[in-house]
């Protein structure tokens, strides 16, 4: 079990800096997900942790030991690649044992570990096959098995589920979670899929353009996004965003006005907020309700463009009269509406997220 | 699916045991290499990997290239360069000392100029001949719908033979008691000692070269022909274009980049003619009728009674300049063909 | 059958150009096959047959008969007497235009007849001793062994060193990589004929003159091999190499256990060409090797041509032995070889 700390980590190619000073702490035995849109630097960061990519500046430590200049083998990490990177010319058994042989491990010990890992992953029936003869899910398990037999200090996963079909992805997701509970090894998991991150990780690091946007427990990110980027990235479907203005603010609440949502009062104090300031209001689709606004609550009307019903829940997509952005409303159960119909919606102001229009940063609830 | 899978694992396991055996042998190299890697770091390993090859390239190519020029400016019969006196441009002057370049007899080294003339005529005829036969054969094979693989193999086969074998096979075929003379006696009641008559021997040297190398160029042209999209011809057929016109207006222009590369390659290789001609004609005979530049260089440098390394190198340098011009023009053409 | 043979682009109809195409292909096949076939046939003829003119199309030898009372087997002839009758006789001896013969039925009675009445009886005969004799008489086994040694060692080294270079050039980024690659490719432009004098001096300087290692070492590094392998290695995913690195494999072990096995198809092509190059190599061994004990097949064969100018029956047999391995390799691998040449322009 290994704790990892990264301090002001930077990566540049020539003069082009792609990772701009990252600080992350991973506790021993923690399952951390790195998420972000493609090109945000999450894979580069993972490769810097693995030792495959040299670190340009900053410090990376495993349990207080500086590992910047150690090779992947010396860092004792194991990695599951997006493409699995199984050795096509070796049998499954050999794929699993190759790393151990490289360490000149005792033959009996190698066999013991390979058999144990194969049993654990239910691939013991295919040990003498080549990867080509396996299905996608089986290959995935072999790739994980290859990491397990090494008994590494840290497991690294680079989008390991992106090549699987939807059903298998859900299944493997829970298997990896189970594996983590069983092994209790530190795991770092890169994905662009926030559902994966939310369901598996204990801690999520949201990355964007080579910078950390927010670090926190999954629910924290959902309930208290630190900025507009995280608010838009976490949660599916995405958060509804509206421009607005602060009318007045005092110790009991903040009064807000928006062309789309009317006037409403957030019932808690927010530190450092100024009247007349431009803000952005964020509302999750699940916090919007269809129906006319009650007094004091916010609300608006939208013209329906599309209705997606899954039977047990329905998403209604529409536009508030002046807005260009779609408003999404989550309705429990089945719901039908005509295209072009005008629907009123309302919300509880307590759930409204306020962001500074200038910096995009969350205007946080003042805690007393 | 299930049947091969049940057989395959055994084969896989067997191949892996072989792999482990080899592995044990390779440990001899692997262990010091791993130690070296720990010492110098991963980033310097590629230099280690290219080192042996670069050392060999340096010793056997780069150093000789530098020395070739140095040799050309030295005289005497000593082999080692530091024993050789500097003579300046003397070797070049001697080679180029000529009353009339079209008359080898008027030159100081008439053998050199004879070789140059022979090489020039050989290059011209061999290039044109090979180009013609290779193109015709490629067109023919491209047209065949059946047996193409077989004929392609047949025409390519001579390319793989050794120059000595080709020289001897044809020497025997053309010998006084050879098969060709057998037929000549039968039908025309005459016998020709082909390889002892100047005209005939020169013709046969060119012919044997074409026979020997044609398949290689044919393959390159054939690959070019097969790269021409089918639908171009189909469009032409719909337009009612005659086959003859299709060849001149479609095939030939589309093949032109390919043919240019082949032509320059042929020129480069023709200038260096030696092996098969030397064996076929028993050393360039009759007389000097089939003595080419490379043979001149070889003999001037290595026959025990000459050992004129400086003169040979000067001739090499002159030929090298010619080849360089041809090579650069090839690169230029290849680049132009890409655009 | 006819329908099958005439299946051309126009489907079912053979026009003039199709006939010409077939004519060209078949004529060309004969042009290729006849000289080689003639050498093979001739290599199985007896010395007497090989020097007889006009040549017979099949290998034959004089028919012989063992007669009691005669120390050696006698050759069998047909005698055509002036009266037109024919008789089989055995030739005892021949002096000038007269020959002493006997009737095999009555071996005791010999009689003399003019040579003009006799014509020899010949039978189909393959003179295999043409192939076995040179083994004893000349250094042929030695040449063969030298050639095999050069071919095998040079090919093994070529595959090893060139793949190592190709590995570095395709799977690492390092300063000077492109320069090294360009330098290696540029050696393609330097033919042996231009540098043979200084190259020989280098061989002498390294004390490798008249030594098989002088032939081997100087041909080990081939730009073609490096190029071919590099292009192939570029198609191997870098993920595999990183996975092996994570698996604690040393860089050399990655080369040996991951990259090399995955390059097997390209290595096979290079191996085939390397074997053919070495087997057929002529000018460079001719320069380096001077004592017959070190000759390769090609040099030995060339030298025999001068030495035993008239012993064509041996020369041809050895020629056939020399072309046989290449022919067998080609028969089995012709598809790979022709496709390899067509796609890479290697020769």
Automatic annotation (TrEMBL), chain A:
Gene3D superfamilies: 2.40.50.100, Nucleic acid-binding proteins, P-loop containing nucleotide triphosphate hydrolases. One of its GO terms (cellular component) is ATP-binding cassette (ABC) transporter complex, substrate-binding subunit-containing. It is found in: Cell inner membrane. Residues 4-234 form the ABC transporter domain. It is a peripheral membrane protein. Its EC number is 3.6.3.-. Belongs to the ABC transporter superfamily. This is Multiple sugar transport system ATP-binding protein. It comes from Rhizobium giardinii. The lineage of its organism: Bacteria, Pseudomonadati, Pseudomonadota, Alphaproteobacteria, Hyphomicrobiales.
Automatic annotation (TrEMBL), chain B:
InterPro entries: ABC_transporter_permease (IPR051393), MetI-like (IPR000515), MetI-like_sf (IPR035906). SUPFAM superfamilies: MetI-like. Keywords: Cell membrane, Membrane, Transmembrane, Transmembrane helix, Transport. Signal peptide: none annotated. It is found in: Cell membrane. The keyword Cell membrane applies. Residues 116-330 form the ABC transmembrane type-1 domain. Its main location: membrane. It is a multi-pass membrane protein. The chain crosses the membrane at residues 47-73, 120-141, 153-173, 204-226, 247-268, 308-333. One of its GO terms (biological process) is transmembrane transport. Belongs to the binding-protein-dependent transport system permease family. This is Alpha-1,4-digalacturonate transport system permease protein. It comes from Rhizobium giardinii.
Automatic annotation (TrEMBL), chain C:
Its main location: membrane. It comes from the Bacteria. Coiled coil: none annotated. It is found in: Cell membrane. Pfam families: BPD_transp_1. PROSITE patterns: ABC_TM1. It is a multi-pass membrane protein. The chain crosses the membrane at residues 21-41, 143-169, 181-206, 212-233, 254-277, 312-333. Gene3D superfamilies: MetI-like. Belongs to the binding-protein-dependent transport system permease family. This is Alpha-1,4-digalacturonate transport system permease protein.
